[in-house]
Amino acid sequence: MGQSNAWAHLTHLTTCLWMVVALSQTGEVNLTRWLPYIPCRGWQAQSKQRRLSRWLHNCRLNVQRFYKPLIQAALADWQEDVLYLSLDTSMFWDQSCLLRLAVVHRGRALPVVWRVLERQSASVSFHEYREMLYQAVNRLPKGVKWWCWRIEAVCILTACER
Questions:
Q1: Is residue 150 classed as helix, strand or coil in its secondary structure?
Q2: 138 φ, ψ to 5°?
Q3: Which helix (H) or strand (E) holds 67?
Q4: Helices 151-161 & 126-139, crossing angle to 10 degrees?
Q5: For the stretch 119-136, what's the b/e string if a residue is b when 16 or more beta carbons lie within 10 angstroms of its beta carbon?
């Protein structure tokens, strides 16, 4: 899942699976709250947290390659008539802008694709998110009608769908 070959080390897969279990049990992305659900030989909570942090910062893991099959599987059997997409920006530390295209469902946004831009503004021009729209087309289920809030996004997604 994102590595050049299938899980070179079984411990990487094991850590990933325990993190998924912890996430589903707690319902939040918080390493400290995950600790009771992570088995570890170390006695200190700090040992568990270091293990999770090392896994999350492992440069050999490719998040995009890991996430693409997950979001495709999640959207594969979409039961609704329409899929609503939202293009959203969030600023972090006044220097990074997170740009994401997400499926909106039951008041939640499920990211389909995202990109981090180094900047001090949340304003993003069309040419900066055009590639994300092309990536999104390959992740959205076929045969489902969708609606996007930005007119440029509608044009790109419609063109790619054909």
A1: coil
A2: -75, -15
A3: helix 63-76
A4: 40
A5: eeeeeeeeeebeebbebb
> Sign of torsion, CA 111 116 120 121?
negative
Q: Tokens standing for 118?
A: 């180094």
Q: Where are the beta strands (DSSP E) in the chain?
A: 82-92, 96-105, 108-118, 145-148
CA 85 to chain centre: 14
Pair type for strands 145-148 and 82-92: parallel
**Beta-carbon neighbour count of residue 11 at 10 Å?**
11
Q: Are the C-beta atoms of residues 69 and 1 closer than 8 Å to each other?
A: yes
Q: pLDDT tens digits for 71-98? A: 888 888 777 777 788 888 888 888 888 8
130-159 pLDDT, tens digit each: 888 888 888 888 777 777 665 455 544 554
Interatomic CA distance for residues 92 and 5, integer angstroms: 33
Please state, in angstroms and rounded to a whole number, the distance separating the CA atoms of residues 45 and 64: 29
Cα distances from 147 to residues 13, 77, 131, in angstroms, run 36, 18, 18
Backbone dihedral angles phi then psi of residue 89, each to the nearest 5 degrees: -125, 150
- Nearest Cα residue to 139 out of 80, 67, 47: 67
